[in-house]
């Protein structure tokens, strides 16, 4: 397997797959949207394993317009 910042897994048959981690917020809507996108990605890239991680932190951006 290649060295670097990538993660790979090996299944029971010995096939190696690249892992892509997808982050989402905790809200139900965000999770539904993320699941939908990941399902489409799986259809397009069946050789890639996707992991979904939930971010607990909240980021608030305040824009000031002058």
Q: Brief overview, please?
A:
This protein has one helix at 28-44, and strands at 7-10, 16-24, 48-54.
Task: Summarize the structure in words.
Residues 20-53 form the Porphobilinogen deaminase N-terminal domain. GO terms for molecular function: hydroxymethylbilane synthase activity. It comes from Sinocyclocheilus grahami. With 66 residues, the protein is of the alpha+beta class. It contains one helix and three strands, in the order ββαβ. A three-stranded mixed beta sheet has the order 1-2-3, with helices on one face. The N and C termini lie far apart (53 Å). The mean pLDDT is 84.
What is the element string, with H for helices and E for strands?
A: EEHE
**Biggest sheet, open or closed, and with what strands and sense?**
3 strands, mixed
Return Rg in Å: 16 Å
Count of DSSP H/I helices = 1
Task: List the topology elements.
Blueprint: E1 7-10, E2 16-24, H1 28-44, E3 48-54
Parallel strand pairs: 2-3
Antiparallel strand pairs: 1-2
Entry keywords:
66 residues; alpha+beta; 3-stranded mixed sheet; 3 strands; 30% strand; Porphobilin_deaminase_N
